[in-house]
Amino acid sequence: MRKLRIIAVAFAALGLSLFGAAPAAAEPPTTDILIFDDLTIEDFTCGFLIVEVFDGTVRITTFVDDEGNPTRIRIAALFQGTLTNPETGESTKGQQELIIFLDVEQPAQETWAGLRFRAVFPGAGAVLLDAGRLVFDVETGEVFFEAGPHQVFHEDFEAYCAEFSS
Question: Rounded to whole angstroms, what are the CA distances from 77 to 56, 70, 86, 99, 101?
């Protein structure tokens, strides 16, 4: 699950790297779209291998000030896929519909809103759910505001890992 955050932060870095020389006049926001098919991640969060295969789209919108300098970035990450324990064959669906707001003028602060991650197992329901809103300092991890269940953020994987090990 940490890899999903790493991927999102990588998209933010990509957005920042797209800035070239700024024009003198104000510009409308720019949007870059990244499409992923069969993005495969090997996850060892549970102490054993879970293979995650996702399809999705990331839309990076960069807003600028009157001088053309970036002021904030909005990253919309929409993913769905399958997570499988290859040893037991246990499998489930995973989903993400997350919006990340980066304030370029205060780059250490991020806001995450929406569905960061949900894993639903047949008969057990959503055993891993991270949804709502988080505002935090990226460098220190200090949470300024939190609303909703955030199992991934708080690394509460007990029920999730139990489902995969049965």
Answer: 7, 20, 26, 6, 11
Label the pairing between strands 125-137 and 50-64. unpaired
The residues near 154 (Cβ < 8 Å, ≥ 6 apart) are none
Q: DSSP letters of 35-69?
A: EEEEEEEEE-TTSS-EEEEEEEEEEEEEEE-TTS-
Q: How many CB atoms lie within 10 A of CB 89?
A: 7
* Contact criterion met (CB below 8 Å) for 87 and 47: no
Helix, strand or coil, per DSSP, at residue 17 = helix
Question: What's the pLDDT tens digit per position in 25-38?
Answer: 568 899 999 999 99
- Judged against a pLDDT cut of 70, whether residue 55 lies above it is answered with yes
Tokens linked to 158: 């007990």
DSSP state of 62: E
Mean pLDDT of all residues belonging to the chain = 85
Identify the residue with better confidence: 102 or 35.
35
